[in-house]
Amino acid sequence: MKNNVLIYSESELIGRLLTQDRHAFNYLYTNYSGALHGVVLKIVVKEEPAQDLLQEIFIKIWANINRYDSEKGRFFTWMLNIARNSSIDYLRGQRNDIQDLDSSIHWIESNQTVFGEIEHNELRELVSRLSYEQKTLIEMVYWGGYTQIEAANRLKLPLGTVKTRLRLAIKNLRLHLAHTSSCSPSMAI
Questions:
Q1: For the segment 130-165, what is each residue's pLDDT rounded down to a tens digit?
Q2: Per the confidence metrics, is the pTM higher than 0.85?
Q3: Residue 105 and which of 38, 43, 93, 134 are 20 to 30 A apart at CA?
């Protein structure tokens, strides 16, 4: 407890959530709702549905906490996936147009707490190294909320081509990140 504010480690928080501790849930909401709201708002764009989805997301987290597996990834990443998937499910019925790459990169850069300590222009630089086809698919699938099938249909490409291009794009980004982080000791991704 610091200045009468209770602070949980990640493992303590998960343990308390598993026992349905309401104080832990309040702590979870207080400390993570801003970041998750940003992710949801980026995908669905409109504030009212983003607020509604945020409430649903926290209910899903609360109801499914026993499905979290620390061996598969960090707790925050698990929650981000729930937020992203819930937002995409919402979009499937809405068919919003994808947003341009610059606005997506700007949003990620302004939310550094979610994406680690990437320097201001490093993400823009890393994505700019991808081919036009890969950038377009990253934009559609990861920032625009399209499924791979929807992206294939919209771009009039075979699904296999979309999957291959996305796989290569992610591989290329990982290689660039690994190279960047090995060259810059201050970068912790």
A1: 888 888 887 777 666 778 888 888 889 898 888 888
A2: no
A3: 93
